[in-house]
Amino acid sequence: MELAETIASKKAEAPEIAETAAHFAWLRTGEEGLTRMVQELYEAKASVRLETYIFHAGPLAEEVREALVLACQRGVKVRVLIDALGSIGLPSAFWDPFIKAGGQLLWFNPISLARWSYRDHRKMLVIDDRVAFIGGFNIADEYKGDGINHGWRDLGLRITGPIVAELAESFDGLFAEGDFKPKRLQALRKATLRVAEGQNWKVVMSGPGRYHGELRRTLGRDLARAKSVKITCA
User: For 181-204, what is each residue's pLDDT tens digit?
Assistant: First the structure.
C-alpha cells in the first residue's frame, strides 16, 4: 500500500515538474532553422508572433509571407514586428496580401534622425504559445545557408515548455510600442529588461536602449561557475 501511494504521489507531482522544465533543440544552420520555422508556420492553429530585424525581399521572404497569409486565412491571429531600419529596403506594398488577409504588421521605430539608433535587433518566432524559435536567423536569403556552400552560417534554438510564454509576453510588450510614441531622450534610456527562470533555464529578455547590465551580470556569473566554455560570435 505504501509503495502504491508513493507511485501515485509521484505521478501527481509529475505535471508540476514538467511545467517548469524547458526543452531545447539546436538549429545549427540557417537552412535547418528557417526551413523548420516555415514548416511550423504552416501548422499554426491559434497564434503567430514573428519579430525580426531584417526582412529582405526574395524567395524566402515570399515563402514566409505565404505561410503567414495562409495562417490568417485559417483564422490564426498573426502579428509581425520588423525593424524599420533593418528592413528599410522592403517595400510596404510587399505586405499588402498579408494585411488584406487580416494580419497585423508594425514597423518598429519608423525612420527618424532623432532616434536613428533606437532599434529592435531581436529575432523570434512564437507559434501557438507552444513552440518558439530564437537565434540569429533574419528573414533574408543569405541567412538560409550553411556558411560553406552558400549563404551564412547562423545558430538558433527551437524551444518548448514554459519559457515560450515568457518569450510571447516579451513580444507583446514590444509590439505595443511598435508605432513608437517616444519619450524624451528615449535613446538614452535604459533598456527594458525581463528576467525569468525555471527548472533548467533562465532567459534575459531585453529591448532597445542602453545599459544591458543584467545581461552582463548573468553572463559573468555563468562564466565564473563554468568548467568549460564554448562561444560562437559573428
Answer: 655 555 555 556 677 888 888 887
